[in-house]
Amino acid sequence: MGISSTAAAAPAVPGFDRFYAQSKDAAGGRLLLGELNCVACHTIAPAAAALIQANPAPSLKDVGNRLNPQWIAGYLKNPHAAKPGTRMPGPPSSVPEKLVDEHVQVLTHYLMSLTAGGAPRVSGKVGNGKAIFNSVGCAACHAPLGNEDAVKDDKATVPLPDVKAKYASGSALAAFLLDPHKWRAGGRMPKLNLTNDEALSIANAFGLGVSTVRVGIRASDDEALKKAAIADALIPGVRAEVYEGSWGNLPDFNSLKAKETVVMPQFNAGKTSGKDNMALRMRGYLNIPSDGVYTFTTISDDGSRLTLGNDVVVNNDSVHAPTTVSGTIELKKGHHAISVEFFEAGGGEELTVFIEGPNIKRQPIKANMLSHHKDGTFIIGEEKNAAAEDGFVMDPDKAKEGKAIFAMGGCVSCHQIDGVKPSELALTPKPLAQLKGSKGKGCLSEKPVGFAQNYSLSAAQIDAIAAALDTLDTATKPTPAQLVDNTMTALNCFACHARGEKGGPEDGHKTAFTGTYEDLADEGRLPPHLSDAGAKLTKPWLAEILSKGTKVRPYMNTRMPVFGSAVNHLVEDFFAADSVKSELKTPEVSAKDAVKHGRTLVGTGGMACVQCHVYAGQKSLGLPAMDLALMTQRLQREWFGRYLLDPVQLRPGTRMPQFWPQGKSVRQDILDGDTALQIENIWQYLSRGGKGPLPPGIGKQGMLLAHDTEAVLYRNFIEGAGPRAIGVGYPEKVNIAFDANTLSPALIWQGDFIDASKHWEGRGEGFQGPAGYSVIHLPDGPPIATLDSESTPWPELLKANNVIRAAGIDFKGYSLDKVRRPTFMYVMNNGNVSVRDFYEGALTKESADSMLKRTLTLEAKAAENIFIRLAVGDIESTPAGYRVDKNLLIKVTSDAKPIVRAAGSKQELIVPVKLNNGKAVMSAEYVW
After folding, report:
1. Closest CA relative to residue 787, chosen from 768, 802, 815, 808
2. Which of 184, 192, 326, 515 could form a disulfide with 524 if both were Cys (CB 3.0 to 4.6 A apart)?
3. Considering just the CA atoms, what is the radius of gyration of the chain in Å?
4. 222-382: what fold?
């Protein structure tokens, strides 16, 4: 091999190098025992196991698809030279180099035989991989690409191997970057939620092309064509088989019988033109003019697939509108068997196939590049081992011998592979508890001999591990705070986050943290500290962050990584470590008050939170600070209150201003300056999660209809009131949406009326919701009905021709009084009963809040068993009126007594109509 087996670099363990390398702390040794996975060989007592967080070795089940054999061989011979800082032990220095070479050779063949699942396939477009690597978080642990010297003085940089030499293709590296936990369950290499394009771009930045479909270069089929004696009998065009059938995806053409076979000069959808439920399989040979990387693209409507030999290069399957998909493969010069499959389900049909490569700009594959055999013979050359083009051919006999070495040498103790068990010939390592005083012996010697593993440990690492072994049986059970610290140290969380006085980005790495808004300075680019994460964040939110990497700081380019199962315990540990005894006493706040006062305080007329904060996706008026609508999902109520009172104490360096200095509000004009009441109103308003009205000052409100001196009407599609809604805003700042199909009040709400811009600008599509707050949905059904008795179920609405309406009731329009308040008019019972339904705003006697008063006037010669329905829900009769679902009070004035009756799982409030000289008047006051 020509590579020395002497150690080249000690294992790089960021947590140790940064926090323990200058001491002989047993905690640093316990960290190394876990990171070097010593517990894979040495058993450990359950009591001591809690002190060590093991780092399982990478999975090798498909390593033959992903890595280059030459790199594997060099790595096995001297892992510390091939990958400086690796935690993989190398051959002991006492083992003869000739024997090492023999073992390396057969082990390489064995590893290249492990090809479960096939070669990784990732397709996408390549961009600036260097910029992506340096911004999304890779450079938080690794040296930034192109600026490696910036971190030379930092202690915890994780070195990289020769990535280009290691991986067989850009697709193999991209697949790893997309889901590292598939191969490294320990989570030390986290998942950054990259897109396919981003992963391929990073691979390209390391010099790995975006070969997305196979490991190695695809050889031409020329040899196979010559062997079949058809190389000189190829003619222009491709042979196309035409099929009929109905499919949602490309069918298995081998199981179908073609309707006809034709010759086509190029790949297109011509034979399906104007037809539905058709499919084509076009096959022939593509003449590649020179060696190189080629990109193929199909634009199809519906599905298509391009295959070279047995490699699917482009998969653009399923029913869809014209869709573009690309794939890239490295090809040798010559003829390559090509198959393009296409199907058309319905609607339009389209297929274009493009090629791009050396000296070929992207263009449709031309006819002069295509050929086929006249009788349809379609030959694919024998597939060779992927690495054969680079001089390596996997030998099954050597692989079998390598498998035995893999078991005997102890490799399987760390790298568990189905069907491989540790050899009985292997020595059984001692339990960790029996290794006291091991410094300078076995694995802990400078030059391990015999069967001791050679980790190339530094003197500091040997000292720390020895100290850990000497104290392992006396170490106490870790506290939750220690468990958090151990995990954050092992996973290098301290490369980004500080907790207490520990961690945070090192000086050289700080430049890798960038943001999109310079005015936020460090607060907008550096990850937050975690000193009181368990007291600050809710359990569901913390679990969400750890399991998904959920991001709430869009201005920060660095992403929150996902570490997998290695952090499952952290939620409970953070809470146990940081919990504080809550002494918070919050005042009671109604939902109505929260929307009214909390909204005011958040908006520009209050504390102006929206000046800096986004709200429910709506841009702030200045800085793009995190979304207020997520606050109550993220934060614990106790912490939220303490933070508002003293932001700097809980987040040193924050630019969040103090609005309650020394606990006293700067807005004494709102809620009489009551601090506790103000904060609780804000909390309750934010608890709506952005589903309520926007705070004043943000969002599009350019066409907010004013109703200051008289009522204003808005007839259009109103959300919750149907397509024939009539909205009315009253000067008292109460509003109604009347459904002209069902002839009933559908919605009532407080505050602003409606924003007309949705319907009055552009095409005016869709439904517009209320602009105010405290929206109440009233019963969905006819407002008035004739019943056989007071126990007869209320009639349902009728649906005909996609129109929902109240049966037997006809709308007769509305009239306006002098301040434009409408009276809705309708008739029932074949016109024998006429109804006038009038609404007006008024002030309640109890407070300055507004209410809505409704007056129903019925006229009829005779009317028996007519009832008016006012409410459906959980109804309670009180001295003040009828309380509905705890948030609406209805006061009824009528000659007949209202009735509360059961209606399935709910209740109904109905009022009998009692005529007096052919007329009945009933009024209802809605207070909410």
Report:
1. 808
2. 515
3. 37
4. Jelly Rolls (2.60.120)
